[in-house]
Write a structure and sequence with these properties.
The protein is an all-alpha fold and 108 residues long. The termini are far apart. Helix 2 crosses helix 3.
């Protein structure tokens, strides 16, 4: 992971000169870090999402070198975790509705 952080800060080391390409590269590195921390199986803060959604993202991002080389536009990159957010939110909403229906809820 530390080599990824060093690589993120060393654009010239990966042959990036253009400012827009630097931004795209930085966002890809951040997306990889989000994947590692929240989406990857057995990650530190693994979120509860469907296996199909986890596989869809893992197939794209799992291999760091391949991910960085992938041709993806900024909009797709910025929206790639939206389905995960929707799933997590729906789980939270379901739990919240269950909590509100308990007799102890008004006391909390």
């Amino acid at each position: 992971a530390s080599s990824i952080i060093e690589e993120e800060e060393n654009y010239e080391g990966v042959g990036i000169i253009d400012e827009q390409a630097k931004l795209l590269y930085a966002v890809k590195v951040k997306a990889y870090k989000i994947f590692e921390k929240y989406v990857a199986v057995d990650s530190e803060f693994e979120i509860n999402i469907s296996s199909a959604q986890r596989k869809k993202i893992s197939d794209l991002v799992d291999d760091y070198q391949q991910w960085i080389a992938t041709n993806v536009n900024m909009q797709d990159l910025l929206l790639m975790f939206e389905p995960c957010k929707v799933e997590v939110y729906s789980h939270l909403l379901f739990s919240f509705h269950r909590l509100r229906s308990t007799t102890n809820y008004p006391v909390i």
